[in-house]
Amino acid sequence: QVQLVESGGGLVQAGDSLTLSCSASGRTFSKYTMAWFRQAPGKEREFVAASSNIGSNIYSTYYADFAKGRFTISRHNAKNSVYLEMDRLLPEDTAQYFCAAVDSSGRLDKVDEYDYWGQGTQVTVSS
Predict the structure, then answer these.
(1) Res 86: pLDDT
(2) How many other C-beta atoms are found inside a 10 Å radius of the C-beta of residue 125?
(3) Residues of the chain with pLDDT > 70: what percent?
(4) Which one, of 105, 97, 73, 94, lies nearest residue 4 by Cα?
(5) How many CA atoms lie within 13 A of 114 on its CB side?
(6) Rounded Cα distance, 91 and 106, in Å
(7) Going by fewer Cβ within 10 Å, which terminus of the chain is more open, N or C?
(8) What distances in angstroms separate CA 107 from CA 30, 31, 36, 64, 74, one per listed residue?
């Protein structure tokens, strides 16, 4: 069982940067694919970014098109943590952001591919 706790959300202005953190329980964090999803009011949950162990402790990162060039996912395995650095934020980035984990590897960008979810952290970007 993996428990995930997100933090770092808040109210920012367009153009600002924000870094989200996700802390995970468990002793095998390094083997999990860790991802960020987001859900805006009235919309479906969508993939943002993922970090996946593709073998020999080599991690590949994957991004949604809207996240490329603005968002960066990183992880610190010794701290059981994954981060999402978001730059040049836009009002349309306003959403609840969720951390997710699964004991599998590859480009996993669908909600039903993940077994564990955090409660989410709200990001609001004002114009």
Answers:
(1) 98
(2) 20
(3) 100
(4) 97
(5) 28
(6) 30
(7) N
(8) 16, 14, 12, 11, 15
